[in-house]
Amino acid sequence: MSLSLVKRWCDTPLLRRVLQFKEYRRKIQSCNMTYTLLRHPWMKRLPVFSSSFRMLSTKTDKVERERGITVKAQTASLIYSYEGEQYLLNLIDTPGHVDFSYEVSRSISACQGVLLIVDANQGIQAQTVANFYLAFEAQMAIVPVINKIDLKNADPERVESQIEKVFDIPCEECIRISAKLGINIEEVLRAVVERIPPPAANIDEPFKALVFDSTFDHYRGVVANIAVFGGRVKKGDKIVSAYLGKTYEVNELGLLRPAEHPTQKLFAGQVGYIIAGMKDVKEAQIGDTLYLQEHPVEALPGFKPAKAMVFAGMYPMDQSDYPALRSAIERLTLNDSSVTVQRDSSMALGAGWRLGFLGLLHMEVFNQRLEQEYNASVIVTAPTVPYKAEHGSEEITVVNPSHFPDRAVVSQYLEPMVLGTILTPDSYTGKIMTLALNRRGIQQNMVYIDDQRVMMKYLFPLNEIVVDFYDLLKSMSSGYASFDYENAGYQAADLIKMNILLNGEPVEELITIVHRERAYNMGKAMCERLKDSIPRQMFEVAIQAAIGSKVIARETIKAFRKNVLAKCYGGDITRKMKLLKRQAEGKKRMRRIGNVEVPKDAFINVLKRKEK
């Protein structure tokens, strides 16, 4: 559902009166919706919401609609009448997937409270726990909302008891709703007014605003989403970026409902957008403070920039498409500053880029947008995680496995660790514990949240879960288990670099960093999957996994073979031997000069493994 402001309200006298903000402080609430409440079908049936819904649907990212997920946080302002007063509610809809938790954390910085949405059928999920603690650590007011109570198998009583046990929130504070049917939506809005405090903002102070998101418009430049913490700003004002020290002139500002609605001013306590002639999203640094040129202020406490946790190489299918792909990547990264870009080159694939993402889903969404929006066909290499190597007091970070230093020049290797949370029905506990053990997981905690569901916490190496752990978890639990994780720093590990050789030639894109005790099993499995992925050639192909000069696993793809003896119906055996020898020499020569073509999907499939 969208709690977006109705388009037809945009120019009413009511809105103009509210925007004058007499007694404005107690009439503004900002809240973060830590699960999606936006874009639900019930809005289509309400006349006042229909135009806004259509407008939002056309602007929603195509990938989001296809996958049924929220990728980019959406901001909306809503006027709500309560006990004879008009309130302006600032709402931010945030993603639920772990890869986009950064969207949640930075949105929370602009809010005073959160609506924690829990499915009445599925109950508390792993991402619910993660988002709760993000809000709890930020000392936000938390309003638990149980959605989808209209479903046949909905059990809101069980979910309320889970919330009380896991989060220590009384059952009486939970609100039961159906966003689809519009049941109790008014109660949610009342709770926002009653239970979430207004922003501690003062209109008499100098202007001070926090940049919590930004997008790029090819005609107007950067559109920065801001939360105003003090004073006011109007069109034509000169504002300064505390991060860069640059001065800009405000060309346009206004509210987001969720479509842009220009206004003359933005006041303390409001959340809106501002356009000030910024040409690059890097100028609108997330967490930056904006202030008036004539009234410098102390910068607001920002937050850490997004940290890439998964790296992959991207190369054009044809090198002639390089300029077009470069332009497509540049345009996409304008609206996604969390992607890191570094030029790279490969002997096999040519010129390309090494891109850093927040997670595997983030990488898949980026790749899907490249293909759909820019018709760019790319080769994506196997994803890797950032390792560290120490030599004395020096420390280097390695994001490309081909640059992994030799053990002789370092004192120790470090691998990134994550603290994973798994919620599952207790009938699948045994299978999931085996899966976690196979992925080098170390159990930290295990607790029953009710008589049927278990919450387990494991310390995992990030490399063990980044490719296919989530898919296997869903498969083993018939789709009922959920998984979320948070960074847990680095830990010393016995790591080695494993090369994959095709006919004795190393394939740079398939170099893998593995734990020593898993090297043989990993190498054998990769060779087997490559054998299934690479089509047969006119010559024999030897697939080998090697550590240094030592081959630890091998598979062979047999060559297509013509029967050169078909024309020999008899005669001397030496004639047949001569023909066979000539064929063998030709195959040997072909193998020496022939190139083995590795299919596009092999780079991802080769790292996926089936658990027994």
Automatic annotation (TrEMBL):
The keyword Hydrolase applies. It comes from Dissostichus mawsoni (Antarctic cod). NCBIfam families: lepA, small_GTP. Belongs to the GTP-binding elongation factor family. LepA subfamily. Keywords: GTP-binding, Hydrolase, Membrane, Mitochondrion, Mitochondrion inner membrane, Nucleotide-binding, Protein biosynthesis. GO terms for biological process: positive regulation of translation; translation. This is Tr-type G domain-containing protein. The lineage of its organism: Eukaryota, Metazoa, Chordata, Craniata, Vertebrata. It is a peripheral membrane protein. Promotes mitochondrial protein synthesis. May act as a fidelity factor of the translation reaction, by catalyzing a one-codon backward translocation of tRNAs on improperly translocated ribosomes. Binds to mitochondrial ribosomes in a GTP-dependent manner.
